[in-house]
Amino acid sequence: MSSESGDAAEFVDAEVINAERVTAWIAERVDIVGPLRFELIAGGRSNMTFTVVDEAGTRLVLRRPPMGPLLPSAHDMSREHRLMDALADSPVPVPDLVGLCQDPEVNGRDFYVMHHLDGVVVRDIEIGRELSEGVRTRMCHELIDTLCVLHRVDIDEVGLGNLAKRSGYLERQVKRWSGQWEQSKQRDIPLIDRVRDTLIERLPADPPTTIAHGDYRLSNCMMDPAGPVAGVLDWELCTLGDPMADLAGLLTYWNRDGEPDQTGDNETTTLPGFLSRQDMAGLYADQMGVSLDLVDYYQGFASWRLACIAEGVYARYLNGQQGEQDEELDLDAYRDSVERRVEIAAEYLGL
Fold this sequence. Notes:
The chain is α+β, with helices and mostly antiparallel strands and 351 residues long.
């Protein structure tokens, strides 16, 4: 990733990064000029991402789980590393990897390191405003092109055929996020359960199986303003699944016409030049030759799932597990956004 990926604050807490041991581990794999500087990239809502810079200006990126207790199956560094390693020789743009560390003596928890990518992560509207309308439009096309490339990957050919079950994706997802909701929820929201039940009742029959990134969106891609997507990032939620769920996830983070108080990608994509969510869906359907008849169901699922995920993030911030990030997070607004996402899910499902 690049320095444009977000504000960075030097972070030297030994409980998060054991600088001496991590530096030694990296030095065994990459030529560096010590000491290393570790900077926490603000804005991460799950795993913690650091820019790593040496005295000669060499730049790397390190990913590790958040602090404190973790939910089962969450924040699996080896899974992220495996996925990018498997896709290294595919047409899907991913960062070059340095390696995965699973020795708790080095830094307490697993982490992996990858080489820095050149480009920009459009993580907020201020970055988006620096782009011309033409660049914004081209980025829309590049995002869809890259998503289609991902969904065309032969999972057996790249060695990911046994990553997960090849059927029952949506049912497993609903079960997983329902469980994580129950473990992390800070209050009761009855609509969560109603949407969950509706999703199960209306499960689509026999969807295709592809690699499903699980969190594909504008701010999870390193964009090249003058070319194709430089790299797809944040593979934490990737599995084998339903490609329409990935499209719906992208649309969930896209501008909702007339929706007030949008944030993140939803706000950024209100800028002139960014296509509408309908046009984005149309580009995907045209390339992949698929129907959009069930797109509202999938967007309902994506919004519901995001509400469950957001509640977990909210709980981690309340418990101080995200580190001392150099940004302000309005916890009350974030809490309220969970309820709004559930309401949006219900709207898509006609509840």
